Amino acid sequence: IEPVQDETRVRYRIDGVLHTSIVLPRYIHSAVISRIKVLSNLKIDETRLPQDGRIRLTIGGRSVDFRVSTMPLLNSEKVVLRILDTASGLKNFAELGFVGHTPAIIEENLNKAQGMFLVCGPTGSGKSTTLYAALNKLNDEGSNIITLEDPVEYYLEGVNQSQVNPEIGLTFASGLRSILRQDPDIIMVGEIRDVETADLAIHASLTGHIVLSTLHTNDALGAIPRLVDMHVEPFLIASTINLVVAQRLVRRICRYCQTEAKVPAELVDKIKRTLVELPEAMRAQLPRGEWKGGVAPRV
């Protein structure tokens, strides 16, 4: 929800692309922002600093969460709401789009007695959703699972979920230090952001805990130099990391809108040469026969 000259523009990001939904008169912009602040328990009169909040509404019988972020602009404020449909339920790895031998590798490493499981990727690439799928897989009565998130996106029954609050000193680092005194078996840290959090997470995975977390890197290999940059000793990285997953969300062709296109012969030859060069284990995972298309949501 952003002011643009003499109007207020409301845009939705659908499958990674922004679309203008409605355009409102500029004179109601302040009223809209104030109403959102009231619903998310933010300070109405604070227009100089960014604020973060949360709204929970029941829409059409479904519980929907909104993560609210305000940003002061030159002469006004902009608001971004992230919609979290908690009623949609958690998905397993296959439903998230992990295919072939990948789900088996992930589950094999999750079942280890200790170590670190990292998910990498840019903002909005589904890292948290993958972590929740992992937690859902590990969640049983015999395990004490504690999470530290910013914020809690989905509620998991049987999991102790905590939310960071820097305003009162509850950061990832301080919260993780307290979690280690809570007799945990499995720890999920929303994000490794600083040196102290990295150090605590590494040592937690060294002392008999399974630690799940995320890193902002471009690929799986990038997790190693990122941890080294956070002053984690290389021998500790080798001793603790079980698995690093890097992921992106990619758009799929809508099965109602797709049309057949003629692929140039040189491109077909290039694809065939590339497939031949793949290892045998990867070639075994290639689809057989004709692909029947996909649907709009990203995978």
What does this entry look like structurally?
The protein has 299 residues and is an alpha/beta fold. The protein has three domains: 2-84, Beta-Lactamase (2-Layer Sandwich), CATH 3.30.450; 93-246, 3-Layer(aba) Sandwich (Rossmann fold), CATH 3.40.50.300; 265-295. The protein has helices at 29-39, 93-96, 102-110, 127-138, 172-179, 195-206, 223-229, 234-240, 265-276, 280-283; strands at 2-4, 7-14, 17-25, 51-59, 62-72, 77-84, 115-120, 145-149, 160-163, 186-189, 210-215, 241-246. The strands form three sheets. A six-stranded parallel beta sheet has the order 9-8-10-11-7-12, sandwiched between helices. Helix 6 links the parallel strand 10 (186-189) and strand 11 (210-215). The longest helix is centred in the middle third of the chain and has 12 residues, at 127-138. The model is unreliable at 290-295 (pLDDT under 50). Pfam families: T2SSE. It comes from Candidatus Magasanikbacteria bacterium GW2011_GWA2_46_17. Keywords: ATP-binding, Nucleotide-binding.
Record the strand order, biggest sheet. 9-8-10-11-7-12
- Give me the CATH superfamily of the largest domain: P-loop containing nucleotide triphosphate hydrolases
From the coordinates shown, what is the CATH architecture of the largest domain?
A: 3-Layer(aba) Sandwich
Overall mean confidence score, pLDDT: 88
Rg value: 22 Å
Q: Would you kindly provide a brief summary of this structure?
A:
The protein is built from ten helices and twelve strands. With 299 residues, it is α/β, with parallel strands linked by helices. It has three domains: 83 residues, Beta-Lactamase (2-Layer Sandwich), CATH 3.30.450; 154 residues, 3-Layer(aba) Sandwich (Rossmann fold); 31 residues.
